[in-house]
Specification:
Helix content: 40-55%
Largest sheet: 9 strands, mixed
Strand content: 15-25%
Radius of gyration: 45 Å
Number of helices: 20
Strand order of the largest sheet: 18-19-17-20-21-16-22-23-24
Number of domains: 4
Distance between the termini: 65 Å
């Protein structure tokens, strides 16, 4: 039962009470306005003032000013019968009215002004309670009414019983909460027209601000009805509510769904009744730009750009880095990925509201199997933003059937990747700290390349490729341990020889020519036939036994030169060649950071970089794996048209990646979870950097 009494109920009580009092007056006195002062005391003054004061004057509570008026009316009423009433009782009742008049007048007088201090505050506190209690119309006029019955009981005896019954019944309706009961009945019958809030403003194009009356719950589970100033009724999706200056204010999204026709509630929000055809959740989502799999997570706020959005989160616990969200731009669904979040505070007069804003970068329009393409514009302010429901992840492919799949977008099943085989010679770099997942991804890329006719040559310093890729029957292209030791000795002899070490250099040159022919033969055999006639697509070059840095560079340069020369001499006939370089800082170092001070070492690094530069036009591609960009030749890295980065922490790597991905994504890289990465480049089917996660494979868990 509601505690609030509608004004019409009070008016009805006033009208009915006055009509009954008038009927009693006519029945017993012959006139609705008795001329006899004794009868007027009962009918015209005391009884009607009880009805008027109870129903209208004291709507919520009695104020000291009301007590002044009530007591003054009581004194005036009693003065009119001074000559007819017994003097002693009359003075007692009149003294009561005068006392109330004095204390209520005093309270009003000392309470005037903005600040009440000192004796005035003390006197106001002393007189306030007695004045509002003793001066209440139901009490004061009841005293006058009953005293009138007592004064003239011998004269009015026939009507005494009727008046007492009327007085008792009228006063009983308030403690029995009859007015509240009538109000609740009417509200139940007309629930569809119960306005529960007033529209404060509408922020273009569809954000609704409402001042609630505090009697209803504003949540996202149930839509409401809004009657706009043009008398058009529309359904509203509630978002959130907050207090402002002691009042509850709510925010919602206006939909284009027409609501039931309502009259008398212009510029108000109305709670729908059970009989209203309330739109379903899917209908609301569709009207706001979503679908059956969509979950409303926020709306667009200021600070947006074509390439990035700012989204006010409705439930911050739903959001996570890399999460896929989307919004409508015209008739198109444009996808974004969350890359950052900030907490903000909005001042609402003396109250504050805390909320979170997510930054999301554009992926663009998703075309099945064709990937993401840029969209040239951005959503309007306050446009709803959606994600997929946790139990209904989007199951689409941003890759073609023959593409290499990197993984899926977080919180979805959208597979991302691209045609790596067709673009293998545009060079790819895999970056990330140890244990982040880059080597396992490299293994998958090697298997995919070998399966599709690419000859893969791995320069392995970790000695793990042979075991992990044994299913591909790899060919060992490495030089023997004895040859490696001989090379190390001759390089050391050149470095320590006297007077330019001419004999040592001659011996090194002869040895290098012999080694070059040996490497050329093994490479040619691998590329043309495979070892012992067995066709294989994977060749391994193990350098783990070579400890001298210059020897490592020598071996690397010889192999890469032979591979490039073969591809150049057999253009049109040579198979596709992909060189995979593990721990690239060892064989493709940045001279300034790796301590390569001699000209020979710098020259070798320069030759390796030149091979990388020229490889693409001869059909030779590079897949470079490194933990830090600072230690890898920048000439090589800058030739990598596709960059895939797992977690990195050092400033040099982040500075390099900032030029590739942009500041928003680089800020995300140090916080990437294990098996999460960012990809962007020539063969990735996305025109913007994209965050993905590699599905966890228990069989690979020990080798990540």
């Amino acid at each position: 039962m509601k505690t609030k009494v509608d004004p019409w109920v009070r008016i009805a009580i006033l009208v009915v009470g006055t009509a009954v009092a008038g009927a009693l007056s006519i029945h017993f006195t012959g006139s609705i306005l008795p001329s006899d002062p004794r009868q007027a005391l009962l009918f015209q003054n005391a009884l009607l003032l009880i009805v008027l004061g109870s129903a209208i004057l004291e709507n919520h509570y009695t104020k000291p000013a009301d007590s002044v008026v009530n007591s003054l009316m009581g004194v005036i009423t009693l003065l009119s019968v001074y000559g007819y009433a017994p003097h002693r009782p009359w003075f007692v009742v009149s003294g009561y009215c005068v006392f109330v008049f004095i204390i209520s007048t005093t309270c009003v007088a000392v309470s005037a002004g903005k600040e009440i201090t000192g004796w005035r505050a003390h006197l106001a506190k002393l007189t306030y309670r007695p004045s509002v209690v003793l001066g209440k119309s139901r009490l004061l006029f009841t005293v006058v009414f009953l005293s009138g019955l007592w004064f003239f009981h011998s004269v009015q005896e026939p009507i005494t019983l009727a008046l007492v019954l009327f007085w008792g019944l009228f006063l009983a309706i308030w403690p029995l909460k009859i007015p509240e009961l009538l109000t609740s009945w009417v509200h139940q019958r007309h629930a569809q027209t119960a306005a529960v809030g007033k529209v404060v403003r509408v922020d273009s194009p569809n954000i609704l601000r409402v001042a609630l009356d505090g009697t209803s719950t504003w949540n996202q589970e149930r839509p409401w009805i809004c009657v706009l100033p043009n008398n058009r009724s529309q359904w509203v999706q509630p978002l959130y509510s907050q207090f402002k200056d002691g009042q509850l204010f709510a925010t919602g999204l206006l939909t284009d769904l027409a609501g039931p026709e309502l009259s008398g509630h212009i510029n108000h929000v109305v709670e729908p009744s059970d009989g209203d055809a309330t739109p379903s959740r899917s209908e609301i989502d569709a009207a706001l730009g979503g679908d059956a799999m969509s979950h409303l997570v926020g709306f667009v706020v200021e600070g947006k750009e074509i390439g990035a959005l700012k989204v006010e989160a409705l439930d911050p616990l739903i959001f996570q880095e890399g999460m896929l969200i989307w919004s409508r731009v015209g008739e198109r669904r444009v996808y974004y990925q969350v890359v950052a979040g900030t907490a903000r505070e909005e001042a609402l007069a003396t109250d504050k509201r805390g909320y979170q804003v997510a930054t999301a970068t554009q992926l663009g329009i998703l075309s099945q199997k064709a990937g993401f393409s840029k969209y040239e514009w951005l959503p309007a302010m306050n446009t709803p933003v959606y994600s997929s429901r946790p139990e209904q992840n989007i199951d689409e492919a941003a890759v073609a059937d023959e593409d290499f799949v990197l993984g899926t977008i977080p919180r979805s099943k959208i597979r991302v990747g691209g045609d790596f085989v067709a673009n293998y010679n545009y060079h790819t770099a895999l970056l990330g700290v140890t244990g982040s997942g880059k080597t396992e991804l490299a293994f998958d890329m090697i298997r995919h390349s070998a399966k599709n006719g690419v000859k893969v040559v791995c320069i392995d310093l970790t000695d793990q490729y042979r075991g992990r890729l044994s299913d591909l029957n790899p060919v060992d292209l490495s030089v023997s341990e004895q040859t490696a030791d001989s090379l190390s000795e001759k390089l050391f002899a050149v470095e320590t020889g006297t007077y330019g070490a001419p004999d040592e250099k001659k011996a090194l040159g002869e040895f290098a020519n012999t080694l070059r022919e040996q490497i050329k033969k093994s490479v040619t055999s691998f590329l043309e036939e495979g070892e012992e006639g067995e066709d294989t697509s994977l060749g391994l070059i193990s350098l783990h036994e070579i400890s001298n840095t210059k020897a490592t560079l020598w071996i690397t340069e010889l192999y890469m030169t032979c591979l490039l020369k073969y591809a150049r001499d057999n253009r049109g006939k040579s198979p596709k060649i992909l060189i995979v370089v593990e721990e690239a800082h060892t064989v493709m170092p940045e001279p300034n950071t790796m301590g390569l001070g001699d000209y020979d070492s710098r020259g070798l690094v320069g030759k390796i970089a030149q091979i990388a530069l020229q490889g693409r036009k001869y059909g030779v591609g590079l897949l470079v794996l490194a933990q830090r960009t600072a230690t890898v030749s920048k000439t090589v890295l800058t030739q990598c048209n596709t960059i895939i980065s797992f977690t990195c922490y050092d400033d040099t790597s982040l500075g390099f990646l900032r030029n590739i991905f942009g500041p928003e994504h680089v800020a995300l890289i140090p916080n990437l979870p294990r098996l999460h990465a960012i990809a962007f480049g020539n063969w990735i089917r996305s025109e913007h950097p994209i965050v993905f996660e590699v599905p966890f494979d228990e069989s690979k868990a020990g080798g990540v």
